[in-house]
């Protein structure tokens, strides 16, 4: 696209020649010939420092907040408004307003975003409707799938994926909208046909400060959504529904979309979905009560986006959800092992109650967990308390210490575990090396026990001192038990 057309109507000061802008990025490392580089002031560094690198890699234009030096052959634009919002405006225009050409469904909430968005994509594709995905595990458009780096990418990548969806003929796209994304304008400008609020419990207080501020961040999605679908069984969701008229879903309370007659079995789930338009019998291989909420949210979101439930419900038995969520690892061992991505107090509490439900009589529930480094310190003892309240045997270890000292993270969490449990050498085991902790837990399991490995889910690494070492809970288990069955 020509620069003049790209910046038309956007408040900025411009110098230098008219150029062709092939694409846009705020990360100099991604710049290719003809791309525009947006230099943003970050928390760690000022993106302006990377202008020389962007130019060396062939940037045709540079955008910045406070002005930078560029050669005469490069277009140079200085934003006059909020740089992140203006970057999103540019990205949206460059990629042809792709949100307007898709049934865009945005999902926010503390837990269940990845699962719900993945279910939306799988359900729609199962019913023959092309659907993209932007989220923690995968970014996808048509059949193209790439591993994601973060939950919601910066606006240039967000709009690029939507554009790819349009090009691939997708009719919809399901997007995980994190609270960080809403604060940092990563999805600014996008019109979501349907927005979804799954739940709100403690997380990310390092970033937002208070739960109220965390909620307000998520609440921003309402203003960008045509219809808003809210979990009426969640306390924050209920508060929202009492103040404003939105579409609701629930299991325990009256709602526009409600699941009745839950049957939560060891190999799958059944319930009846009621809405004003009719009733459907839903059978799914997904386990656990929280997945009823995710299925309900996914089906209701698709229905609110205009897709027919008669076509979607038959696809439910084939949908598997996201990898690394309540997923069994079977190496022929005489006890159960499951990996899951619970990394908040609420998710752990819910995971452990599913574990208890799945545990054979007389078996012991083992839970291996850790708390992420460089994340909300206040949630650490609460995570530990949730595990202590529901597990028979605790395996306390590391989960992405990032830049922090692993033992200090373990120390932060430990007070959440009652002293009597910590003093009991048969019930409480602390070891910072996760792989070794997995080995020890497996060695301690007896026939009929169940070991839940929480927090890492699909993640293929352990991040220590800023380095991502190859690691996954599944492969650690398979290596210790001699390979998959
Ligand atoms: C709070 C937050 O989200 N921070 C993000 C933000 O950091 P920042 O603004 O401080 O950036 P910075 O590292 O100081 O760099 C400044 C600028 O220089 C650029 N740069 C930097 C280095 C370089 O070589 N070249 C270059 O151009 C960067 O791209 C950036 O634009 O912009 C960076 C570049 O895009 C991100 O890496 C960084 O995410 C950090 C790593 C992060 O961990 N974010 C997590 C907390 C996050 O966003 N999580 C949410 C929610 C998770 C969930 O609950 O699902 C998510 O959406 O993933
Ligand atoms: N609807 C739900 N309510 C509560 N807990 C849930 C729900 N769905 C999933 N969980 C728990 O939360 C974990 C993470 O689920 P999922 O990845 O879908 O959430 P997310 O919101 O995408 O998380 P993230 O913030 O890391 O992106 C699951 O492994 C499970 O333990
Ligand atoms: N999206 C979440 C993922 C946490 C995953 C867990 N393994 C951890 O490192 O705490 C975050 O960035 O906080
Ligand atoms: Mg996610």
From TrEMBL:
> Catalyses which reaction?
UDP-N-acetyl-alpha-D-muramoyl-L-alanyl-D-glutamate + meso-2,6-diaminopimelate + ATP = UDP-N-acetyl-alpha-D-muramoyl-L-alanyl-gamma-D-glutamyl-meso-2,6-diaminopimelate + ADP + phosphate + H(+)
Binding of UDP-N-acetyl-alpha-D-muramoyl-L-alanyl-D-glutamate occurs at 28, 151-152, 178, 186
The record places the motif (Meso-diaminopimelate recognition motif) at 399-402
Swiss-Prot/TrEMBL keywords: ATP-binding, Cell cycle, Cell division, Cell shape, Cell wall biogenesis/degradation, Cytoplasm, Ligase, Magnesium, Nucleotide-binding, Peptidoglycan synthesis
Q: Which residues carry this modification: N6-carboxylysine?
A: 218
For this protein, the record's PROSITE patterns field holds: FOLYLPOLYGLU_SYNT_1
Q: Outline the extent of the Mur ligase N-terminal catalytic domain.
A: 24-71
What is the E.C. number? 6.3.2.13
Annotated ranges, domain Mur ligase C-terminal: 324-457
The enzyme's first-digit EC class, named in words, is ligase
Binding locations of ATP: 109-115
Keyword field contains ATP-binding = yes
- Which InterPro entries does the entry mention? Folylpolyglutamate_synth_CS, Mur-like_cat_sf, Mur_ligase_C, Mur_ligase_C_dom_sf, Mur_ligase_cen, Mur_ligase_N, MurE/MurF_N, UDP-N-AcMur-Glu-dNH2Pim_ligase
Which SUPFAM superfamilies does the record cross-reference, listed alphabetically?
A: MurD-like peptide ligases, catalytic domain, MurD-like peptide ligases, peptide-binding domain, MurE/MurF N-terminal domain
> Coiled-coil ranges per the record?
none
Which pathway is it part of? Cell wall biogenesis; peptidoglycan biosynthesis
Entry binding sites for meso-2,6-diaminopimelate: 375, 399-402, 455, 459
Q: Where is the Mur ligase central domain?
A: 107-302
* Subcellular localization: Cytoplasm
**What are this entry's molecular-function GO terms?**
ligase activity
Which post-translational modifications are recorded for this protein? Answer: Carboxylation is probably crucial for Mg(2+) binding and, consequently, for the gamma-phosphate positioning of ATP.
Domain of life (superkingdom)? Bacteria
What this chain does, per the entry, is described as:
Catalyzes the addition of meso-diaminopimelic acid to the nucleotide precursor UDP-N-acetylmuramoyl-L-alanyl-D-glutamate (UMAG) in the biosynthesis of bacterial cell-wall peptidoglycan.
- Write out the similarity annotation: Belongs to the MurCDEF family. MurE subfamily.
Checking HAMAP family in the record gives:
MurE (MF_00208)
Instruction: Please report the name of this protein according to its UniProt entry.
Output: UDP-N-acetylmuramoyl-L-alanyl-D-glutamate--2,6-diaminopimelate ligase
Source organism (scientific name): Geothrix oryzae
């Amino acid at each position: 696209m020509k620069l003049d057309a790209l910046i038309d109507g956007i408040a900025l000061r411009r110098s230098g020649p008219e150029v062709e802008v092939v694409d846009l990025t705020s990360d100099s490392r991604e710049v290719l010939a003809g791309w525009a580089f947006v230099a943003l002031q970050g928390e760690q560094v000022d993106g302006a420092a990377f202008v020389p690198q962007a130019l060396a890699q062939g940037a045709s234009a540079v955008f910045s907040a406070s002005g930078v030096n560029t050669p005469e052959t490069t277009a140079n634009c200085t934003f006059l408004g909020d740089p992140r919002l203006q970057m999103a405006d540019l990205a949206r225009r460059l990629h042809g307003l792709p949100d307007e050409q898709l049934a865009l469904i945005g999902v926010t909430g503390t837990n269940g975003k990845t699962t719900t968005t993945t279910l939306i994509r799988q359900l729609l594709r199962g019913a023959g409707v092309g659907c993209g995905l932007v989220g923690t595990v995968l970014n996808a458009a048509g059949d193209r799938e790439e591993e994601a780096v973060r939950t919601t990418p910066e606006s240039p990548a967000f709009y690029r994926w939507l554009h790819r969806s349009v090009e691939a003929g997708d009719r919809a796209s399901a997007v995980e909208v994190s609270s960080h994304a809403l604060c940092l304008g990563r999805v600014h400008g996008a019109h979501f046909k349907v927005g979804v609020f799954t739940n709100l419990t403690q997380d990310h207080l390092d970033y937002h400060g208070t739960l109220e501020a965390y909620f307000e961040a998520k609440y921003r999605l309402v203003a960008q959504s045509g219809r808003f679908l809210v979990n009426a069984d969640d306390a924050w969701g209920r508060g929202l529904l009492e103040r404003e008229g939105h579409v609701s879903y629930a299991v325990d309370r009256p709602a526009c979309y409600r699941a009745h007659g839950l049957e939560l079995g060891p190999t799958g789930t059944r319930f009846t979905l009621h809405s004003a338009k009719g009733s459907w019998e839903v059978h799914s291989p997904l386990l656990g009560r929280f997945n009823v909420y995710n299925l309900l949210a996914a089906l209701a979101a698709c229905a609110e986006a205009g897709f027919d439930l008669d076509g979607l419900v038959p696809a439910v038995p084939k949908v598997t959800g996201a990898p690394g969520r309540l997923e069994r690892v079977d190496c022929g061992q005489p006890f159960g092992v499951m990996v899951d991505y619970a990394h908040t107090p609420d998710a752990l509490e819910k995971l452990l109650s599913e574990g208890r439900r799945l545990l054979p009589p007389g078996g012991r529930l083992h839970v291996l967990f850790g708390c992420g480094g460089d994340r909300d310190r206040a949630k650490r003892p609460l995570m530990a308390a949730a595990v202590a309240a529901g597990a028979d045997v605790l395996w306390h270890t590391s989960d992405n210490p990032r830049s922090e000292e692993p033992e200090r993270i373990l120390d932060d969490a430990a007070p959440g575990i009652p002293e009597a449990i910590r003093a009991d050498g048969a019930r409480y085991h602390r070891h910072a090396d996760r792989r070794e902790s997995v080995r020890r837990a497996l060695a301690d399991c007896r026939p009929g026990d169940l070991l839940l490995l929480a927090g890492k889910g699909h993640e293929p690494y352990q991040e220590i001192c800023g380095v991502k070492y190859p690691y996954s809970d599944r492969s650690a288990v398979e290596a210790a038990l001699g390979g998959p069955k």
